[in-house]
Amino acid sequence: MKEQEIQAIQQLLSTPKKIAIIPHRSPDGDAMGSTLGLYHFLLKNNHQPVVVSPNEFPDFLAWMPGSETVKIFEKDKKNCTKVLEEADLVFTLDFNALHRVGEMENVLNKLTVPFVMIDHHQSPDDYAVVTYSDTAFGSTCEMLHNFICFLGKKSDIDKTIGTCIYTGILTDSGSFRFPKTTGTTHRIIADLIDLGVENTEIPTLLYDNSSYGRLQLLGKALQNMQVLANHKTAYTTLTQEELDFFNHVKGDTEGIVNYGLSIKGIVFTAIFIENAEEKIIKISFRSQGDFDVNLFAREHFNGGGHRNAAGGKSELSMEDTVNKFEDLVNKLKI
Ligand SMILES: [Mn+2]
Fold first, then answer.
1. How high is the pLDDT of residue 59?
2. pTM for the predicted model, two decimal places
3. Ligand 1 centroid, distance to 24 Cα (angstroms)
4. Which of 90, 177, 191, 296 is least surrounded by CB atoms within 10 angstroms?
5. From ligand 1's centre to the CA of 305, what distance in Å?
6. Judgement on whether residues 288 and 158 belong to the same structural domain of the protein
């Protein structure tokens, strides 16, 4: 962050304020970690922060400190709109375009108070008075750590804030494996462990709490997987019928897309998940190395994200979506 931007933030935070903190729709570990980490930091600095999530967060994040205070726009539009309208300041974390909050965008668009963005995705929109945006970072949580340090408040980072930051760094780095994991990332993690952050318990809470149904759903997805070996690509599908059969709940399909990359030689993978209610196929893409799934998702599937992790959607049937995908892959030189 530039000195000028740091001063602007310090000025904004110099008196107690009502502050709305917003993650993207369907928040993941990094979105929840960064918003709750900021929540605890602002609370400690005598502000009145509220995290307003566009929709419900997954169960596997419900243990996070402060998650019980999170307001869910989709469940309580009236009160959430009031909270947003009364805010003196709005932070948006882990996304950079207001359409990522779904219907809540209409409320945000009408607000006249300053917005601050902290985010690590490509091509930020221009809605914030301070935009701390940098694709070099593997997580918004690592940026939040830096943000607090820029404000000269490193000593405010305690076990609670550290737990939130740790969760986002862990989940967005694929447990410290993805290429943007640096020595600095590990040094931050080391500091957090020294503060008492439970570095063995957190992964257990996040990853070892599957239901039997979820594991069976994973089995189904693995069974459905197709490999296009000539193009180093693997993909899988889950239909609404399959999701229903295994009593799927929100979050159950999280992470399944990554399994394609665990096949030797595969560098591009996708999962197509039917959503009968919204009449769309939701798609996640992952890659290893140079193949840019952000561009691929933007160009062909109405989405975007990062170079190695992106999402998209299709309004075609599952069959037509998969055919379109295969046709595209057959033209790729991976
Ligand atoms: Mn993130």
1. 86
2. 0.86
3. 10
4. 177
5. 10
6. no
